[in-house]
C-alpha cells in the first residue's frame, strides 16, 4: 500500500479512482483530481507548501513533485504527464503538458497548454513556456512548434495511463 501521511494536520486528498502504486509516497497538503496515477517510487510531497493535481494526470515512476516553503506551490492542470524520474518543483503546469523523462521544472516556471518539455531538459526558475511548443536543452529553450502527432499524443497519453492503472487494481 502507498505511503500516505499527513503533515502538520494536512492530509492528502484524492479521488477514489486514483491509482497509487504500492511504494508511491503522497504526503501533506496534496489534492488530486479524478483518474490520476502515482507510479512506483514516485513522491508527491506537500509538506512545505501545497500541491494541486487536476484530473487524468500521471506521475510516473521515480518522479518527484515538491514545492518551496512560503514561496512556490506546485499547481498541475488536467491531462498532464510527468515522465519517469522527472522533478517538478514549485511551478505551474497547465493542461495537456508532457514533462519528459528526467526533466526538471523549477520554481515559478509556467509551462502553458500543449507544451512538451523534452527528456533531460531543465526549465529554469521564472521561465514561461509558450503554449504549443517543444522545449529542450539545458537550460530549456523553445525549439519548435509541436506537431499534429505530438498534439494527439498529449490528448491520448493520459487515457493510456488510466488504462495501465486498471491493470494493477485488485
Explained architecture:
The structure is a single chain. The protein is mainly beta. It contains 1 helix and 20 strands. The protein has one helix at residues 148-167, and strands spanning 3-5, 13-14, 19-20, 25-32, 37-38, 43-53, 58-59, 64-66, 74-76, 81-82, 87-89, 92-93, 98-99, 104-105, 110-111, 116-117, 122-123, 128-129, 133-136, 141-145. Strands 1, 2, 4, 6, 8, 9, 11, 12, 14, 15, 17 and 18 form a 12-stranded parallel β-sheet that branches. Strand 19 (133-136) and strand 20 (141-145) form a beta hairpin.
**Topology as a string of helices (H) and strands (E):** EEEEEEEEEEEEEEEEEEEEH
**Mean pLDDT over the full residue set:** 97
Helix content: 10-25%
Radius of gyration: 15 Å
| Shape label | globular
Q: What share of the residues does DSSP label as strand, in percent? A: 35-45%
Instruction: Tally the beta strands.
Output: 20
Structural class assignment: mainly beta
Number of helices: 1
Q: For the terminal residues, how far apart are their CA atoms?
A: 12 Å
Question: Uncertain regions: pLDDT < 50 for 5+ in a row?
Answer: none
How would you characterize the largest beta sheet?
A: 12 strands, parallel
Amino acid at each position: 500500500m502507498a505511503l500516505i501521511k499527513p503533515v502538520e494536520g494536512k492530509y492528502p486528498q484524492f479521488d477514489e479512482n486514483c491509482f497509487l502504486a504500492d511504494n508511491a509516497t503522497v504526503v501533506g497538503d496534496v489534492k488530486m483530481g479524478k483518474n490520476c496515477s502515482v507510479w512506483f517510487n514516485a513522491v508527491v510531497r506537500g509538506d512545505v507548501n501545497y500541491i494541486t493535481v487536476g484530473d487524468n494526470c500521471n506521475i510516473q515512476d521515480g518522479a518527484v513533485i515538491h514545492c518551496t516553503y512560503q514561496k512556490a506551490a506546485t499547481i498541475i492542470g488536467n491531462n498532464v504527464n510527468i515522465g519517469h524520474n522527472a522533478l517538478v518543483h514549485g511551478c505551474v503546469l497547465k493542461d495537456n503538458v508532457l514533462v519528459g523523462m528526467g526533466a526538471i521544472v523549477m520554481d515559478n516556471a509556467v509551462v502553458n497548454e500543449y507544451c512538451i518539455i523534452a527528456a533531460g531538459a531543465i526549465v529554469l526558475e521564472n521561465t514561461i513556456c509558450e503554449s504549443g511548443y517543444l522545449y529542450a536543452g539545458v537550460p530549456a529553450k523553445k525549439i519548435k512548434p509541436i506537431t499534429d502527432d505530438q498534439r494527439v499524443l498529449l490528448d491520448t497519453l493520459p487515457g493510456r495511463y488510466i488504462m495501465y492503472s486498471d491493470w494493477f487494481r485488485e
